[in-house]
Design brief:
478 residues, alpha/beta, Rossmann fold, 15% strand
């Protein structure tokens, strides 16, 4: 059975323990003590599986305290055509007037039209099963820059064992994103608007998670990408995308591919890194950022410097308007040979100085071996990419996916397919699509006129005391 440990040294327990705990009690992030290596023979067994069956095989590698039959049952209940459409996950070949080899992996076909649904729908089911089995209640506290919040709320709404307290930055999301969240009327869903940027929201979540007495008293858990359940479920579509692109490109098993990943909080690309660590033949993981390019800066310089709220730019790919990549700690833990003392030192330095610099002589080779390369995009780049993709393919993409394609194209190599992750559907960002194309795609019926729906939310003053008081008044405790 695989056990879990904190990036800062404390042992934790099983997969289900890690799911309920979210953030480790020492302030670190939970990771499995080892990754199961997938042989060529097992890859061959997996390559033609349906998405639910592949999800069972991959997630079972992490959830070793659950029976495989139980994991399979949950995967088949979650990954259905009614929730995600006919293909669950789709693969499209795209043309940019160059040699072929560029693909879009469609992972945004779920209930909220964003890739977060792929993990969150599974996590909602998993939470509900564990909590009902243990007779527990859980109050989920999360932060969103736009897509995580709605995906979590749609996955958790109506579940009697779970309440959701979701923090979102005031006036920093699209109107569609706001309405998706704030129009929900379920009693177990609480939307809390915070002044400032997403990072202010994330800081409040971490402050409460680090208050162990409050966390225990009010049964606080997490669905942000700091929760390992999110990472493990996202690993699945890297395997699935790999197999389907090999078929489209007429390549044999074990032929390498690269992935381009729009990245803000580092959770999505970390899932790709985990897939690579498990033996999936990934050559490069292309990290694409927007104008808030702290991650691109790091991979080019070795310096990780967070920005303050005033420095965090409001962009046309708002879900990546993030200056503190909360999952980045897991990556540093891996490339430092799981040295929890070194990770603790770096994050203490980050707290004191708002930055740290890694030893380039010590880690440059390891970063190169990780396969992560990077680049940043801006508004003009994404507008031009949206336009170009439509002109050449009659396909409409959202601005975050455009960032991924713009950077991914720079790293496209002959005979190595580049798979760009689609992170959301264009409906969620109509203003930018309108600017690029002069029109917006027609919405599905359930989202027509969503901006006109009544909204329900609480606007906090941004202090930890005000947030705690709201949770105290509304939490469902054991």
């Amino acid at each position: 059975m695989i056990e879990y440990e904190s990036t800062r040294g404390r042992a934790s327990g099983t997969f289900t323990d890690a799911i309920l705990e979210g953030l480790a009690s020492d302030g670190g992030l939970l990771v499995p003590k080892n990754y199961e290596m997938i042989s060529k023979e097992r890859l061959a067994e997996w390559q033609d599986l349906s998405y639910p069956d592949l999800a069972c095989e991959v997630i079972a590698c992490f959830a070793t305290d659950l029976s495989k039959d139980r994991v399979r049952e949950m995967c088949h209940e979650v990954y259905t055509k009614s929730k995600f459409g006919k293909d669950i996950v789709s693969v499209k070949t795209v043309n940019l007037n160059r040699k072929g080899g560029l693909y879009i992996l469609g992972v945004s076909n779920g209930p909220t039209l964003a890739f977060k649904d792929m993990a969150m729908q599974f996590l909602g089911k998993l939470f509900d099963e564990i909590l009902r089995e243990r007779g527990l209640k859980l109050n989920i506290l999360g932060a969103t820059s736009g897509d995580t919040g709605s995906a979590a709320e749609y996955a958790m709404m109506g579940r009697g064992s779970i309440s959701v307290f979701m923090l979102s930055p005031k006036d920093r999301m699209s109107e569609f994103q706001k309405s998706q969240m704030y129009s929900l009327r379920e009693k177990n869903i609480h939307n809390i608007v915070v002044p400032g940027s997403f990072d202010n929201c994330q800081d409040l979540v971490k402050d409460i998670s680090n208050d162990l007495r409050f966390k225990k008293t009010y049964s606080i858990g997490s669905v942000n990408s700091i929760n390992w359940g999110r990472i493990s479920a996202q690993v699945v579509y890297y395997f699935f995308g790999y197999f389907r692109v090999l078929q489209k490109a007429n390549k044999s098993l074990m032929h390498p591919v690269s992935f381009a990943v729009p990245s803000g909080n580092f959770g999505n690309i970390l899932s790709g890194f985990v897939a690579k660590e498990m033996g999936l033949p990934i050559k490069n993981l292309v990290l694409a950022t927007n104008e808030n390019n702290i991650l691109d800066d790091f991979f080019k310089s070795g310096v990780y410097r967070v920005r303050n709220p005033k420095e965090t730019l409001i962009t046309s790919s708002p879900s990546m308007d993030i200056s503190k990549a909360s999952n980045f700690e897991r990556f540093i833990y891996e490339i430092s040979d799981r040295d929890s003392n070194y990770v603790s030192f770096l994050w203490n330095e980050l707290t004191e100085k708002q930055s740290f610099t890694i030893d380039k002589n010590k880690f440059q080779k390891l970063i190169k071996e990780s396969g992560i390369v990077s680049g940043s995009s801006n508004h003009n780049n994404r507008i031009n990419t949206i336009r170009k993709i439509y002109e050449l393919n009659e396909l409409v993409i959202d601005p975050h996916t455009a960032d991924g394609i713009y950077i991914g194209d720079k790293y496209l190599e002959e005979n190595c397919p580049m798979i760009c992750l689609e992170t959301a559907l264009p409906t969620k960002f109509e203003e930018t699509v309108q600017e690029a194309l002069g029109f917006v795609p027609e919405r599905i019926d359930c989202f027509k006129n969503i901006e006109e729906r009544a909204r329900r939310f609480y606007e906090t003053d941004g202090t930890i005391s005000d947030l705690k008081n709201y949770i105290i008044k509304n939490a469902d405790i054991n």
